[in-house]
Design goal:
It is built from three helices and 43 strands. With 481 residues, it is mainly beta. The longest helix is centred in the C-terminal third of the chain and has 33 residues.
């Protein structure tokens, strides 16, 4: 495995050096948040805005995706055509008809027609969620509404996103809640906290998970998730079960392990095998599988293991428990937008909901489909493919507008940082590509980026295997701790 990652690193470096030497250009980034796989997506908030099953953030939102070349940002449409020129120092995803971009003068909010809506006095900004956008100023966080009016002053050490009338905030290492006007609703006092969902909020204090009602009262303790499809995971003396938003036990704590609800079903384990129950606790799919994952698009991923430890193959079942794809793939992902990424002989491709191979297993990287598009990678070149067969590549010199480049190319953010928008220096006219300092910096950044990608591939493979071998410790609600 290490040898394969090392070979990938060497090949990728040679390809990148050859590409830049021959003058072939590329979009350095697509999206505005760097994922662990080395691609750049946009995410509202890496702490709070991940869905119940940790799905990948979408590439396109509102049919636009931010792209970057040589430190300058713009947007492409779903055909890969640049519709907002690459002139900004940074950019967020579009959300609710708005996006934040960085200019030499500061941060501004634009619409899909690239019209400036308002300027925002801050150093960072994030996409809108439920009518509010988080921003950072002088190291503190606040929120603005759709008109650019500050409704929550920048006074918090960190903040989540707007949900059900409240926002998670952090002060001096403690978490609490404010309303959409910035009024303190629950004084910061918890070790961790999540957004309100289903009329309740999940918080932790002294290692104990609790649910709070909209009045701030503790509903129940010993829970391990927020409310998802009306239920929260809890643990009793005899196993795992579920409570509702009032704290009442809905599904008895009798299961050896349990995942989180999805599409009206819950994957649970009994006598070492996984099956599915409904939201009332009735068994709907027999306990036949060594591993099982939540339903998505009406299909669940399952796996078998001869020794109960190492996974022998991944497959899929429908809502009736019928096998639509046998457990024959060496790796796989859950369905998204009617497609699932599957791996065979170390290469990734896609199948549809009937189990038909619609994209051959020929890629080294394959992300989930979102809004009919997905990112794939091969030999250091990442492309966007469409579920209808349309595709375009990020590496396209001829379609990139000749825009000025900044005096100094901003350094890449680490993968664990949040999307950042920083005012950049005044741009200058670019020199010839062969002698431009910006080109040299771009080459260095690209080579370092591919090196990091290869290292991440190795780490990702190791972590995947560790995660699956520690399956009991990482299932379902326990991830929400």
């Amino acid at each position: 495995m290490r040898k394969r990652a090392l070979c990938f690193l060497i090949i990728a470096l040679l390809l990148m050096q050859t590409a830049f030497a021959s003058g072939i250009g590329a979009f350095d980034r697509v999206g505005s948040y760097e994922t662990a796989d080395g691609l750049y997506y946009a995410a509202y908030d890496r702490t709070y805005n991940i869905d119940a099953h940790g799905s990948e953030p979408p590439l396109f939102t509102e049919e636009l995706a931010p792209v970057s070349l040589s430190g300058l940002w713009g947007y492409v449409n779903t055909s890969g055509v640049v519709v907002i020129d690459l002139v900004y120092t940074s950019a967020t995803q579009f959300s609710e008809g708005r996006a934040f971009v960085g200019t030499a003068a500061g941060i501004v909010c634009i619409d899909p027609e690239n019209q400036t809506l308002f300027a925002l006095d801050c150093t960072r900004a994030f996409p809108y969620v439920n009518g509010l956008a988080k921003f950072e100023k002088d190291g503190k966080y606040g929120f603005v509404d759709l008109d650019g009016t500050v409704v929550v002053p920048a006074m918090w050490d960190d903040a989540g996103y707007a949900a059900e009338g409240y926002i998670v905030v952090r002060k001096d290492g403690r978490y609490g809640y404010v309303d959409y006007s910035g009024n303190i609703f629950i004084t910061p006092q918890y070790d961790s906290a999540a957004a309100f969902s289903g009329g309740a909020a999940y918080v932790q204090a002294d290692g104990i998970g609790m649910l709070l009602n909209p009045e701030g009262d503790v509903i129940c303790e010993n829970v391990y998730s927020g409310i998802i499809e009306g239920l929260a995971l809890t643990e009793g003396e005899d196993g795992w079960g579920f409570v509702d938003a009032s704290g009442a036990v809905v599904i008895d704590c009798v299961w050896e392990d349990a995942d989180l609800p999805s599409e009206g079903c819950i994957a649970v384990r009994k006598d070492g095998k996984w099956g599915y129950i409904n939201l009332e606790g009735d068994t709907v799919i027999d306990f036949l599988w060594d591993y099982a994952w939540p339903y998505s698009d009406g299909i669940a991923m399952v796996a078998l293991s001869q020794n109960g430890y190492d996974i022998d193959g991944f497959g899929y079942i429908n809502s009736l428990g019928e096998e639509i794809v046998p457990c024959s793939y060496e790796d796989a992902k859950s369905f998204s937008d009617g497609r699932a990424a599957v791996c065979q002989d170390g290469k990734w491709g896609y199948i549809d909901v009937l189990g038909t191979q619609v994209v051959p297993c020929e890629y080294e990287y394959a992300a989930d489909f979102h809004e009919n598009f997905a990112v794939v990678g091969q030999n250091g070149v990442f492309s966007v493919i469409g579920s209808l067969g349309n595709a375009f590549t990020f590496y396209r010199q001829e379609e990139i507008p000749a825009e000025p480049v900044p005096e100094e190319t901003p350094e890449d953010e680490p993968a664990e940082s949040l999307p950042e928008i920083l005012p950049g220096p005044e741009p200058q006219e670019p020199e010839k590509p062969k002698t431009s300092p910006g080109s040299i910096i771009a080459i260095i950044i690209a080579v370092l980026g591919i090196s990091a990608l290869a290292a991440v591939v190795l780490i990702r493979e190791i972590n995947i295997r560790r995660r699956r071998r520690r399956h009991l410790a990482t299932r379902g609600g326990k991830r929400a701790k």
